[in-house]
């Protein structure tokens, strides 16, 4: 309102109607910003009930990369999760096609993107855990399957619901199907407009249209998303290209495509509850449950290379046999030695569904000068990072974690296209680069 009141000081220059128009435009802009933030959140995998755990969405067997499959390839999306009981639940699923912003493609018919049924399909692959302290039932779904096959590229949301409990949604899963119609070239450099070989990484991108692809209005027909390590919280959506050519687009030293390099992800392994593995200081049994205490994470003031999985995780145990049903659930204790910062600190990775939410929010221990978190995790390999959510809602790297141009990161680019007259966005390009 202070901004609007300045116009009232000069009544000869600005009319009341003009002021009202400016206020309306301002509030409209704020609403659009809020709407964009909400729709970008909607693409993440989400768990709605506390008894669902270890949600995984993997393209084929490639657990290190984003869940993107090619429409022309014979690769399936594997969705798996545990229900922390031995009680059978009749879980079913619904599939929806989504536009580039992850809003549902309401103008499509189901038959436009699915051959078969998109809803009321029951998950049939069900197995109970074997000889585990924490009882659970493992559910596995593969797409496409005999009930439904995907016909159209784009974003897809799978809602899993309890068919015996008024179709109550228990989880949402997201994956992408690409029909590679554009060539994408990515290049990464530490030479950025914010600094040379310091804490930043610059991504350059070039997109070439497929033969016969008509693009007459770039802003309306092309949508782009650029991500670092598959994260959506700092994804760059629709960065404006510097060069618009007849057969493509190019982003060169684009200010919007500069990312903090951050630091290598931390990691640990829980393979055996009888002794500690990589990154674990000790394992204890308290009479009711297993507890794994990770080695305290110290501040990192300089860059040291360490091979990691950029937030990915893999369920397994020391026998590496029947991992999905014989792996134990363990309470994992995180400990980060760091000065207290304004805002909140979260443990983050693919296994947290990149959600900066309550289960992964750390609490500060003033007496020990560290952040702590305890959460229940299934045995396996985990990579993770600490994310600082500042009071203004923005995310950043913790000062104690450091940020370096040498850090190994994966960058992904998604390109969507809507042909004139089409009723939904199609994913026509996907590329990934690893520094």
TrEMBL record:
Residues 52-178 form the Type 9 secretion system plug protein N-terminal domain. Pfam families: T9SS_plug_1st. InterPro entries: Ig-like_fold, T9SS_Plug_N. This is Uncharacterized protein DUF5103.
């Amino acid at each position: 309102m202070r901004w609007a009141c300045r116009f009232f000081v000069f009544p000869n220059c600005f009319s009341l109607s003009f002021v009202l128009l400016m206020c309306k435009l301002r509030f409209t802009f704020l609403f659009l910003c809020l709407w964009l933030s909400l729709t970008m959140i909607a693409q993440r995998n989400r768990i709605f009930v506390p008894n669902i755990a270890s949600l995984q969405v993997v393209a084929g067997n490639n657990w290190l990369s984003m869940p993107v499959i090619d429409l022309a390839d014979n690769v399936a999306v594997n969705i798996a999760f545990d229900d922390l009981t031995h009680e059978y639940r009749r879980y079913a699923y619904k599939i929806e096609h989504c536009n580039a912003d992850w809003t549902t493609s309401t103008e499509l018919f189901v038959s436009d993107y699915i051959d078969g049924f998109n809803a009321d399909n029951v998950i049939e692959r069900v197995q109970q855990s074997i000889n585990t302290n924490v009882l659970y039932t493992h559910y596995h779904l593969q797409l496409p399957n005999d009930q439904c096959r995907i016909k159209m590229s784009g974003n897809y949301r799978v809602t899993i619901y309890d068919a015996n409990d008024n179709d109550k949604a228990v989880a949402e899963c997201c994956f992408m199907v690409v029909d590679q119609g554009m060539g994408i070239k990515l290049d990464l450099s530490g030479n950025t407009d914010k600094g040379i070989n310091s804490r930043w990484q610059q991504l350059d991108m070039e997109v070439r249209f497929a033969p016969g692809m008509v693009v007459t209005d770039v802003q309306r027909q092309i949508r782009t998303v650029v991500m670092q390590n598959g994260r959506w919280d700092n994804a760059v959506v629709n960065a404006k290209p510097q060069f618009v050519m007849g057969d493509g687009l190019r982003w060169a030293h684009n200010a919007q495509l500069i990312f903090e390099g951050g630091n290598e992800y931390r990691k640990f392994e829980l393979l055996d509850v009888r002794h500690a593995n990589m990154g674990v200081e000790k394992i204890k049994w308290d009479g009711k449950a297993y507890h794994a205490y990770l080695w305290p994470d110290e501040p990192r003031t300089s860059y040291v290379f360490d091979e990691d999985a950029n937030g990915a995780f893999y369920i397994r145990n020391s026998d590496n046999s029947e991992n999905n049903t014989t792996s134990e659930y363990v309470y994992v204790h995180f400990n980060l030695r760091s000065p207290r910062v304004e805002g909140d600190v979260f443990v983050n990775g693919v296994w947290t569904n990149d959600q900066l939410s309550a289960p992964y929010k750390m609490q500060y221990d003033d007496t020990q000068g560290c952040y702590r978190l305890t959460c229940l995790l299934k045995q396996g390999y985990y990579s993770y990072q600490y994310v600082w959510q500042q009071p203004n809602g923005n995310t950043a790297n913790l000062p104690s974690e450091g940020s370096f141009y040498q850090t190994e990161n994966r960058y992904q680019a998604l390109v969507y296209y809507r042909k004139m007259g089409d009723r939904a966005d199609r994913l026509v390009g996907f590329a990934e680069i690893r520094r």
